[in-house]
Design a protein that fits this description.
Elements: E1 10-14, H1 21-27, H2 29-38, E2 43-45, E3 51-52, E4 77-78, E5 81-82, E6 90-91, H3 93-107, E7 112-116, H4 118-129, H5 134-144, E8 169-173, E9 195-200, H6 208-215, E10 223-228, H7 238-252, E11 262-265
Parallel strand pairs: 1-2, 1-7, 7-8, 8-9, 9-10, 10-11
Antiparallel strand pairs: 3-4, 5-6
Helix pairs in contact: 2-7
Amino acid sequence: MSAQNNKGLKILMLHGYTQSGSRFHDKTRALEKALIKAFPLSTLHYPTGPLPLRPADIPGFIPSSQDNGNEEETDSFAWWRRQNGDSLLYTGMDRGLERIAESIRQEGPFDGVIGFSQGGAASAIVASLLEPARKQAFETAYNKDPQKFKYPTSFINDDGHAIQPPMKFAVVYSGFAAPFELYSAFYEPKITTPTLHFLGSLDTLVDETRGRLLINSCESGTERVVTHPGGHFLPSQKVWLDATIGFVKECVNGTATKKAIKEESVEHMDVPF
């Protein structure tokens, strides 16, 4: 059974590219504290992506003159990787989703999902996959074009249903949509799970165009957007934490309603939404 408010919430936390579950936990201590304060007895669960990264896979890596070709181990992982570097096709996405499904089976069901960067993109994908009509949407898309990404079998129980009920909420920090047509069934029809999106006005890794593509893939009225005046990071100041807490309260208390898209920035923050 999904956790009730008086028993706390179960929240799935998905790290970004080059992070791990433990490193993401370290970076979200303030968010974790705020969530547990607002929802006592809540638990946050931090799986690690299945794809280990080499130093050369990490953006900004510069090999030293002493590099003799040996690959050092890193505490850096991904849910998927771009195929051939600059391609819009992904490799390993099945494995990434399988790892997430494994966490849902072992530690869920979850009330909501929160993710950063690639984990933010994955959070929207997970919310999408658990929606009632999504499996049929994938089948329809695949029947029209067998090149399309198939609904992952790891998200299906033996009875043919999804491995857990739909998420009550998703919070996406610096997230993006998979841009290639191959992955369109994640977003068509649009995602209906209530979703809070954080955009960094100075984010150069996931620029606003990529973030807006995901926002526009959510059904109008189910999304909220907050813009913070920073770069590619998860903001932990009180005003941003309050935005997340206010949104989650709306969702779990059943008071979230469809409304015209509401955007907030530091100049006129008014939470809860």
